Amino acid sequence: RLLETDSKSLRSVNGSRRNSGSSLVSSSSASSNLSHLEEDSWILWGRIVNEWEDVRKKKEKQVKELVRKGIPHHFRAIVWQLLCSAQSMPIKDQYSELLKMTSPCEKLIRRDIARTYPEHDFFKEKDSLGQEVLFNVMKAYSLVDREVGYCQGSAFIVGLLLMQMPEEEAFCVFVKLMQDYRLRELFKPSMAELGLCMYQFECMIQEHLPELYVHFQSQSFHTSMYASSWFLTIFLTTFPLPIATRIFDIFMSEGLEIVFRVGLALLQMNQAELLQLDMEGMLQHFQKVIPHQFDSGPDKLIQASYQVKYNAKKMKKLEKEYTTIKTKEMEEQVEIK
Prior knowledge:
This protein has 337 residues and is mostly helical. It has helices at residues 2-18, 27-35, 38-50, 52-58, 60-68, 76-83, 95-100, 106-113, 121-124, 129-144, 154-164, 167-180, 183-187, 192-208, 210-218, 223-233, 241-254, 257-275, 279-289, 299-305, 312-336. It is globular and about 50 Å long.
């Protein structure tokens, strides 16, 4: 509702601005607008939201650049919905009916609710509004997608959505993320997609940071020990919310690629320290040191992640390799049985 009033006031601002002949998010106006005051950023994002279909077709590159610089807090709810095309989903009408049903996952969901953002005011009180709406969205999803049901970790993503928007909208965005952003594959009981991501990420380390790769191998320090949560919660359990939310902005726009980029950038920045540590020391470093390296702001990390060489074709090739390896393994297991 706040957003509606925001966009109404923005429309009136836009009306007066539109006649001034300034082009919509042209690359020059985008960069100059961004260097101006926050007010200009509001006007710019207001215009993007109001003319979304047009902007997305004609100015995709500029929108991508703007998202990388961070979506203003008040626009996140609507921009996230637009980025994943969740604003007019038929499933939204089923939401209230789903809440009346019983899910086999309810006990599991209840058990984990208190562990989701335990420090955050919205979620920390038992039976608070935050915990209630989080339960509702997780339950509704478990009924819509019975194969996945409920998977631990997904509550952090839903929790972040609920910090930005009402529960029906959060539910629709979550459904979209599961369907179109590979999250459903990551959260399936077999977790095969997570295995693939670990394989691809490990190959990236081997290629870009060979010394660190050898060190990890010598310490039996497996990629899944530190990077699983990066992929399953898009860094929401790694970094404080202001940093993780900026990464999530980019995830909404560009998908899982940003997780690979940020992950490799983190390893590059910490390589010297990690090479000095044994397995126990490295685990401590990932849990205690890395989460607070960017408390002054995420820009340095985001810039570093765009220095990372990410090759989409190579990733496809690695996916084929991984599938072949897994098929062979399964055939061998069948023979052994």
